[in-house]
Write a structure and sequence with these properties.
It is built from twelve helices and six strands. It is mainly α. The longest helix is centred in the N-terminal third of the chain and has 29 residues, at 77-105. The relative contact order is 0.09.
Length: 332
Protein backbone atom coordinates (compact mmCIF):
# COMPACT_ATOMS: atom_id res chain seq x y z
CA UNK A 1 0.00 0.00 0.00
CA UNK A 2 1.55 3.42 -0.96
CA UNK A 3 2.65 5.55 1.95
CA UNK A 4 0.29 8.42 2.85
CA UNK A 5 -3.04 6.65 2.08
CA UNK A 6 -5.58 5.68 4.72
CA UNK A 7 -6.56 2.08 5.53
CA UNK A 8 -9.65 0.94 3.66
CA UNK A 9 -12.64 -0.06 5.85
CA UNK A 10 -15.36 -2.25 4.39
CA UNK A 11 -18.99 -1.23 5.03
CA UNK A 12 -21.32 -4.26 5.04
CA UNK A 13 -24.46 -4.04 2.89
CA UNK A 14 -27.82 -3.77 4.69
CA UNK A 15 -30.34 -6.61 4.60
CA UNK A 16 -32.40 -6.48 1.48
CA UNK A 17 -29.95 -4.40 -0.40
CA UNK A 18 -28.91 -6.37 -3.47
CA UNK A 19 -26.18 -3.90 -4.39
CA UNK A 20 -22.74 -5.55 -4.39
CA UNK A 21 -20.42 -4.38 -1.62
CA UNK A 22 -18.07 -2.64 -4.03
CA UNK A 23 -20.96 -0.83 -5.76
CA UNK A 24 -22.35 0.32 -2.40
CA UNK A 25 -18.99 1.66 -1.37
CA UNK A 26 -18.55 3.43 -4.68
CA UNK A 27 -22.07 4.91 -4.44
CA UNK A 28 -22.05 6.22 -0.89
CA UNK A 29 -18.62 6.32 0.68
CA UNK A 30 -18.68 6.83 4.44
CA UNK A 31 -17.43 10.19 5.72
CA UNK A 32 -13.81 10.10 6.67
CA UNK A 33 -13.22 6.70 4.99
CA UNK A 34 -11.42 5.86 1.78
CA UNK A 35 -12.52 4.52 -1.58
CA UNK A 36 -10.60 1.54 -2.89
CA UNK A 37 -9.26 1.91 -6.43
CA UNK A 38 -7.56 -1.34 -7.40
CA UNK A 39 -4.62 -1.83 -5.05
CA UNK A 40 -4.60 1.80 -3.93
CA UNK A 41 -7.01 3.92 -1.94
CA UNK A 42 -8.21 7.49 -2.37
CA UNK A 43 -8.92 9.32 0.93
CA UNK A 44 -12.34 10.95 1.22
CA UNK A 45 -12.78 13.87 3.67
CA UNK A 46 -15.93 14.35 5.78
CA UNK A 47 -19.09 15.45 4.00
CA UNK A 48 -19.07 18.93 5.52
CA UNK A 49 -15.66 19.83 4.07
CA UNK A 50 -16.91 21.17 0.76
CA UNK A 51 -18.69 20.37 -2.47
CA UNK A 52 -18.72 17.07 -4.37
CA UNK A 53 -16.28 16.16 -7.05
CA UNK A 54 -15.63 13.16 -9.26
CA UNK A 55 -13.39 10.38 -7.90
CA UNK A 56 -11.69 7.57 -9.83
CA UNK A 57 -14.60 5.12 -9.21
CA UNK A 58 -17.72 7.07 -8.43
CA UNK A 59 -18.87 10.33 -6.98
CA UNK A 60 -17.52 11.51 -3.61
CA UNK A 61 -16.11 14.50 -1.84
CA UNK A 62 -12.64 15.35 -3.20
CA UNK A 63 -9.88 16.72 -0.98
CA UNK A 64 -9.79 20.50 -0.75
CA UNK A 65 -7.28 21.99 -3.15
CA UNK A 66 -4.95 24.58 -1.67
CA UNK A 67 -3.32 27.26 -3.84
CA UNK A 68 0.37 26.80 -4.53
CA UNK A 69 2.59 29.68 -3.41
CA UNK A 70 5.04 30.71 -6.11
CA UNK A 71 8.28 32.04 -4.60
CA UNK A 72 9.23 35.55 -5.61
CA UNK A 73 12.32 35.87 -7.82
CA UNK A 74 15.51 36.66 -5.90
CA UNK A 75 16.63 40.29 -6.07
CA UNK A 76 19.91 41.08 -7.86
CA UNK A 77 22.97 41.44 -5.58
CA UNK A 78 23.29 45.17 -6.29
CA UNK A 79 19.70 45.79 -5.13
CA UNK A 80 20.28 43.86 -1.91
CA UNK A 81 23.52 45.78 -1.28
CA UNK A 82 21.76 49.10 -1.99
CA UNK A 83 19.01 48.23 0.50
CA UNK A 84 21.54 47.33 3.18
CA UNK A 85 23.49 50.54 2.57
CA UNK A 86 20.33 52.65 2.74
CA UNK A 87 19.29 51.15 6.07
CA UNK A 88 22.79 51.44 7.50
CA UNK A 89 23.09 55.00 6.22
CA UNK A 90 19.93 56.03 8.03
CA UNK A 91 21.28 54.59 11.28
CA UNK A 92 24.68 56.19 10.80
CA UNK A 93 23.17 59.61 10.11
CA UNK A 94 21.02 59.23 13.20
CA UNK A 95 23.89 58.29 15.47
CA UNK A 96 26.75 59.96 13.57
CA UNK A 97 26.99 63.00 15.84
CA UNK A 98 27.09 60.80 18.94
CA UNK A 99 29.78 58.58 17.36
CA UNK A 100 31.92 61.58 16.46
CA UNK A 101 31.60 62.96 19.99
CA UNK A 102 32.58 59.59 21.43
CA UNK A 103 35.75 59.47 19.33
CA UNK A 104 36.83 62.87 20.70
CA UNK A 105 35.91 61.84 24.24
CA UNK A 106 37.96 58.64 24.30
CA UNK A 107 41.39 60.33 24.64
CA UNK A 108 40.17 62.11 27.80
CA UNK A 109 39.33 58.82 29.52
CA UNK A 110 42.31 57.41 31.39
CA UNK A 111 40.86 53.94 31.04
CA UNK A 112 41.47 54.10 27.29
CA UNK A 113 45.15 54.99 27.35
CA UNK A 114 47.37 53.99 24.42
CA UNK A 115 48.67 50.83 26.09
CA UNK A 116 45.25 49.75 27.34
CA UNK A 117 43.58 50.28 23.96
CA UNK A 118 46.45 48.39 22.32
CA UNK A 119 45.86 45.39 24.58
CA UNK A 120 42.14 45.45 23.88
CA UNK A 121 42.80 45.57 20.13
CA UNK A 122 45.32 42.72 20.33
CA UNK A 123 42.77 40.59 22.16
CA UNK A 124 40.08 41.39 19.59
CA UNK A 125 42.27 40.65 16.57
CA UNK A 126 43.63 37.49 18.22
CA UNK A 127 40.13 36.01 18.16
CA UNK A 128 40.30 36.05 14.36
CA UNK A 129 43.96 35.76 13.36
CA UNK A 130 45.74 34.44 16.44
CA UNK A 131 47.85 36.33 18.99
CA UNK A 132 51.09 36.41 16.96
CA UNK A 133 49.54 38.10 13.96
CA UNK A 134 47.48 40.38 16.23
CA UNK A 135 50.60 41.69 18.00
CA UNK A 136 52.39 42.38 14.71
CA UNK A 137 49.36 44.10 13.20
CA UNK A 138 48.83 46.41 16.19
CA UNK A 139 52.54 47.31 16.21
CA UNK A 140 52.33 48.30 12.54
CA UNK A 141 49.33 50.48 13.39
CA UNK A 142 51.28 52.06 16.25
CA UNK A 143 54.22 53.01 14.02
CA UNK A 144 51.82 54.48 11.45
CA UNK A 145 50.13 56.66 14.08
CA UNK A 146 53.42 57.80 15.56
CA UNK A 147 54.33 59.12 12.13
CA UNK A 148 51.46 61.58 12.57
CA UNK A 149 52.47 62.35 16.16
CA UNK A 150 56.06 63.20 15.22
CA UNK A 151 55.04 65.46 12.36
CA UNK A 152 52.40 67.19 14.50
CA UNK A 153 55.10 68.02 17.03
CA UNK A 154 57.33 69.37 14.25
CA UNK A 155 54.47 71.60 13.10
CA UNK A 156 53.86 72.80 16.66
CA UNK A 157 50.36 71.32 16.82
CA UNK A 158 49.05 69.86 20.06
CA UNK A 159 47.59 66.40 19.73
CA UNK A 160 46.60 63.35 21.76
CA UNK A 161 48.48 60.07 22.02
CA UNK A 162 47.46 57.32 19.58
CA UNK A 163 44.21 55.58 20.50
CA UNK A 164 43.19 52.14 19.21
CA UNK A 165 39.67 51.01 18.39
CA UNK A 166 39.27 47.29 17.60
CA UNK A 167 38.35 46.59 13.96
CA UNK A 168 38.40 50.33 13.17
CA UNK A 169 42.15 50.95 13.47
CA UNK A 170 43.66 53.84 15.42
CA UNK A 171 43.68 57.62 15.39
CA UNK A 172 45.44 60.70 16.76
CA UNK A 173 43.25 63.60 17.81
CA UNK A 174 44.47 67.07 16.81
CA UNK A 175 43.62 69.72 19.41
CA UNK A 176 43.97 72.45 16.79
CA UNK A 177 44.04 72.71 13.02
CA UNK A 178 47.35 73.14 11.15
CA UNK A 179 48.26 76.63 10.07
CA UNK A 180 47.72 75.90 6.37
CA UNK A 181 46.93 73.15 3.88
CA UNK A 182 50.60 72.38 3.30
CA UNK A 183 51.12 71.58 6.98
CA UNK A 184 48.00 69.40 6.97
CA UNK A 185 49.31 67.52 3.94
CA UNK A 186 52.66 66.90 5.64
CA UNK A 187 50.89 65.57 8.75
CA UNK A 188 48.66 63.36 6.63
CA UNK A 189 51.50 61.85 4.60
CA UNK A 190 53.80 61.30 7.61
CA UNK A 191 51.73 58.34 8.84
CA UNK A 192 51.82 56.31 5.60
CA UNK A 193 55.50 57.17 5.03
CA UNK A 194 56.64 55.90 8.44
CA UNK A 195 54.13 53.04 8.33
CA UNK A 196 55.48 51.91 4.95
CA UNK A 197 59.03 51.93 6.27
CA UNK A 198 57.86 49.79 9.20
CA UNK A 199 56.66 47.14 6.74
CA UNK A 200 60.29 46.54 5.74
CA UNK A 201 60.82 44.84 9.13
CA UNK A 202 58.42 41.91 8.53
CA UNK A 203 59.75 41.65 4.95
CA UNK A 204 63.28 41.19 6.31
CA UNK A 205 62.11 38.71 8.92
CA UNK A 206 60.34 36.71 6.22
CA UNK A 207 63.49 36.44 4.09
CA UNK A 208 65.53 35.55 7.19
CA UNK A 209 63.18 32.89 8.59
CA UNK A 210 60.89 31.86 5.73
CA UNK A 211 57.92 32.17 8.10
CA UNK A 212 54.85 33.10 6.07
CA UNK A 213 53.46 34.96 9.11
CA UNK A 214 55.87 37.82 8.43
CA UNK A 215 54.97 37.82 4.75
CA UNK A 216 51.29 38.16 5.67
CA UNK A 217 52.09 40.99 8.09
CA UNK A 218 54.04 42.85 5.42
CA UNK A 219 51.20 42.48 2.93
CA UNK A 220 48.58 43.75 5.39
CA UNK A 221 50.88 46.61 6.39
CA UNK A 222 51.30 47.70 2.76
CA UNK A 223 47.55 47.44 2.20
CA UNK A 224 46.78 49.41 5.38
CA UNK A 225 48.94 52.34 4.31
CA UNK A 226 47.69 52.26 0.73
CA UNK A 227 44.08 52.29 1.93
CA UNK A 228 44.82 55.36 4.05
CA UNK A 229 46.01 57.17 0.92
CA UNK A 230 42.47 57.26 -0.50
CA UNK A 231 41.76 60.93 -1.29
CA UNK A 232 38.87 61.07 1.16
CA UNK A 233 38.56 62.94 4.43
CA UNK A 234 39.30 62.08 7.20
CA UNK A 235 41.83 59.59 5.78
CA UNK A 236 45.48 60.57 5.33
CA UNK A 237 45.10 60.87 1.57
CA UNK A 238 42.24 63.32 2.02
CA UNK A 239 44.45 65.55 4.18
CA UNK A 240 47.16 65.40 1.54
CA UNK A 241 44.63 66.55 -1.08
CA UNK A 242 44.14 69.76 0.92
CA UNK A 243 47.39 70.99 -0.63
CA UNK A 244 46.34 70.05 -4.18
CA UNK A 245 42.72 70.86 -4.99
CA UNK A 246 39.31 70.65 -3.25
CA UNK A 247 38.03 68.86 -6.34
CA UNK A 248 40.11 65.83 -5.36
CA UNK A 249 37.87 65.42 -2.31
CA UNK A 250 34.81 65.23 -4.55
CA UNK A 251 36.46 62.68 -6.84
CA UNK A 252 37.62 60.62 -3.87
CA UNK A 253 34.19 60.71 -2.26
CA UNK A 254 32.51 59.48 -5.45
CA UNK A 255 35.04 56.62 -5.67
CA UNK A 256 34.39 55.75 -2.03
CA UNK A 257 30.63 55.60 -2.62
CA UNK A 258 31.18 53.26 -5.57
CA UNK A 259 33.53 51.06 -3.55
CA UNK A 260 31.04 50.88 -0.69
CA UNK A 261 28.29 49.76 -3.05
CA UNK A 262 30.51 46.99 -4.43
CA UNK A 263 32.09 45.97 -1.10
CA UNK A 264 29.65 47.02 1.65
CA UNK A 265 31.07 46.81 5.17
CA UNK A 266 30.71 48.81 8.42
CA UNK A 267 34.17 50.42 8.20
CA UNK A 268 33.48 51.83 4.74
CA UNK A 269 30.13 53.16 5.91
CA UNK A 270 31.70 54.96 8.88
CA UNK A 271 34.38 56.54 6.66
CA UNK A 272 31.66 57.50 4.19
CA UNK A 273 29.61 59.18 6.90
CA UNK A 274 32.45 61.08 8.58
CA UNK A 275 34.07 61.93 5.26
CA UNK A 276 30.78 63.14 3.83
CA UNK A 277 30.20 65.59 6.67
CA UNK A 278 33.76 66.93 6.59
CA UNK A 279 33.90 67.17 2.79
CA UNK A 280 30.59 69.02 2.66
CA UNK A 281 31.68 71.44 5.40
CA UNK A 282 34.94 72.30 3.65
CA UNK A 283 33.36 72.49 0.22
CA UNK A 284 30.79 75.04 1.38
CA UNK A 285 33.47 77.17 3.08
CA UNK A 286 36.03 76.94 0.26
CA UNK A 287 35.34 80.50 -0.98
CA UNK A 288 35.49 82.22 2.41
CA UNK A 289 38.55 84.43 3.07
CA UNK A 290 39.74 82.10 5.85
CA UNK A 291 39.54 79.03 3.60
CA UNK A 292 41.31 80.78 0.73
CA UNK A 293 44.17 81.80 3.01
CA UNK A 294 44.34 78.28 4.43
CA UNK A 295 44.51 76.70 0.96
CA UNK A 296 47.25 78.99 -0.36
CA UNK A 297 50.14 76.65 -1.18
CA UNK A 298 53.32 77.42 -3.11
CA UNK A 299 53.63 75.58 -6.44
CA UNK A 300 56.86 73.89 -5.32
CA UNK A 301 55.14 72.55 -2.18
CA UNK A 302 52.16 71.42 -4.21
CA UNK A 303 54.44 69.52 -6.60
CA UNK A 304 56.35 67.91 -3.71
CA UNK A 305 53.13 66.71 -2.07
CA UNK A 306 51.89 65.27 -5.36
CA UNK A 307 55.21 63.49 -5.99
CA UNK A 308 55.30 61.93 -2.51
CA UNK A 309 51.66 60.89 -2.77
CA UNK A 310 51.94 59.23 -6.19
CA UNK A 311 55.35 57.67 -5.49
CA UNK A 312 54.22 56.24 -2.17
CA UNK A 313 51.05 54.80 -3.70
CA UNK A 314 53.05 53.06 -6.44
CA UNK A 315 55.60 51.68 -3.95
CA UNK A 316 52.85 50.30 -1.70
CA UNK A 317 51.09 48.65 -4.64
CA UNK A 318 54.34 46.96 -5.67
CA UNK A 319 54.93 45.87 -2.06
CA UNK A 320 51.47 44.29 -1.93
CA UNK A 321 52.13 42.40 -5.15
CA UNK A 322 55.48 41.04 -3.92
CA UNK A 323 54.17 39.92 -0.51
CA UNK A 324 50.81 38.52 -1.57
CA UNK A 325 49.86 35.39 0.38
CA UNK A 326 47.57 32.98 -1.48
CA UNK A 327 45.68 31.78 1.59
CA UNK A 328 43.63 33.21 4.45
CA UNK A 329 45.24 34.70 7.53
CA UNK A 330 43.68 32.16 9.92
CA UNK A 331 46.16 29.54 8.69
CA UNK A 332 49.35 31.44 9.56
Amino acid sequence: MPEGFETTQRVPAEVGDHTPPRAAEAREPAAGLAVTAGESTVPVPPADSGGAAATPHGTGTAPELRPTTIPEPEKPPWKRALGMLTAAGVLLVKFGAKLKGLLFLLPKLKLFSTSASMLVSIGAYALIWGWRFAIGFVLLLLVHEYGHVLQLRREGIKATAPMFIPFLGAFVGMKEMPKDAAAEARVGLAGPVLGSLACIVPVGLYFATGNVLFQALAFVGFFLNLFNLLPVLPLDGGRAMAALSPWMWVIGFVLLVASTLVFPNPLMLIILLLGGFETWRRWKARKTPEAQRYNQVRPATRAAVAAVYVGLAIALAVGMDLTFVARDLSSV
